[in-house]
From TrEMBL:
Protein origin, superkingdom: Bacteria
Gene3D superfamilies: P-loop containing nucleotide triphosphate hydrolases
Family as reported in the entry's similarity comment: Belongs to the ABC transporter superfamily.
Tagged with keyword Nucleotide-binding: yes
Signal peptide: none
Name the record gives this protein: ABC-2 type transport system ATP-binding protein
Organism: Amycolatopsis arida
Family annotation (Pfam families): ABC_tran, DrrA1-3_C
Protein's UniProt keywords contain ATP-binding: yes
GO molecular function terms attached to this record: ATP binding; ATP hydrolysis activity
Boundaries of every ABC transporter domain copy: 6-233
Length: 308
């Protein structure tokens, strides 16, 4: 099982003068939930399409279980595109059975698997409905079922939580956790960074076609700037401005919000605050994935010259 990882190895892609991907490298390990995040046009969808084999890379290689992606390998991938990839006039059950058969399941196996995922994803009452008559959230559930119906060995999901209500988010989160717990590498993109932070073992941040950070959230945020809240009722205005390694973010009525630069000592800040009188609150805030993301893409130039 240890070698059944999905590896993206120095993958590059250009469209004329536009660099979509520039030597992008990361791996998704067996049993791991990997969050792939970036601004619109950063290259997430392009990378996922190359991983699936829908697009060809100009350079680099995609491997699964140590071998280059082939047609046979692609049949083992469960892919969920961001745009709707379903037949709108087909009924839910018929569609899932058809897609399972395309992946090599027998008619009986396809029916059993389709019924399983219809029930698991809360679609039992919609199994005979045409996809086009479903709400967007239920269409998203069918799309996930389509990615799962052939029992894939790896999952590649592009914005799977888009358009879902909180209950559906919980259902989908549980399903992805279950698949990862079974040893399946799972990579998904999302703009819901709080969800990525809660679900994922590791995260990759892409900017302008380049990977700028890969690792666990705690690992990635450990070296980020730390925020402090200090309540010193008797402190004069501007008391923290001269403390080394500190940037004052907000000061209001004896309560000061500070940003502590990497390597700066919070005890120096505390000593400076105590020198002004009593300190009634002194609290550190761990950097969130959202804050890390904003920092990582702060000079991202979206718009002309970018692709998804």
């Amino acid at each position: 099982m240890a070698d059944r990882a999905l590896e993206i190895d120095h993958v590059s892609k250009r469209y004329g003068d536009i660099v979509a991907l520039d030597a992008v490298t990361f791996d998704v390990r067996p049993g791991e939930l990997f969050g792939f995040v970036g601004s619109n046009g950063a290259g997430k969808t392009t990378a996922m399409r190359i991983a699936l084999g829908v697009l060809a890379a100009d350079a680099g290689e995609v491997r699964f279980a140590g071998q280059p992606i082939t047609h046979e390998t692609r049949t083992q991938i469960g892919y969920m595109p961001e745009e709707r990839g379903l037949y709108p006039k087909m009924k839910v059950l018929d569609q899932l059975v058809y897609l399972a058969q395309l992946h090599g399941l027998s008619t009986n196996e396809a029916h059993r698997s389709a019924e399983h995922w219809i029930a698991r994803l809360g679609l039992a009452e919609r199994r005979g409905d045409e996809v086009q008559k479903l709400s967007l959230g239920n269409q998203q559930r069918v799309q996930l079922a389509a990615a799962l119906v052939h029992d894939p060995a790896v999952l590649v999901l592009d914005e799977p939580f888009s358009g879902l209500d909180p209950l559906a988010v919980d259902v989908m989160s549980d399903v992805l956790r279950e698949k990862a717990a079974g040893g399946v590498p799972v990579v998904f993109s999302s703009h819901q960074l709080d969800l990525v932070e809660r679900l994922c073992d590791r995260v990759g941040i892409i900017r302008n076609g380049q990977m700028v950070a890969v690792g666990g959230v705690a690992e990635l945020t450990a070296g980020a700037d730390t925020r402090l809240t200090v309540a010193a009722p008797e402190a004069p205005s501007g008391w923290a401005a001269s403390v080394p390694g500190v940037r004052v973010l907000n000061e209001n009525g004896g309560r000061t919000e500070l940003e502590l630069q990497p390597g700066a000592d919070d005890q120096v800040v505390l000593s400076a605050a105590l020198a002004t009188g009593p300190v009634t609150e002194f609290r550190r805030h761990r950097s969130s994935l959202t804050e890390l993301f904003r920092s990582a893409v702060s000079d991202d130039r979206t718009g002309e010259g970018t692709v998804q």
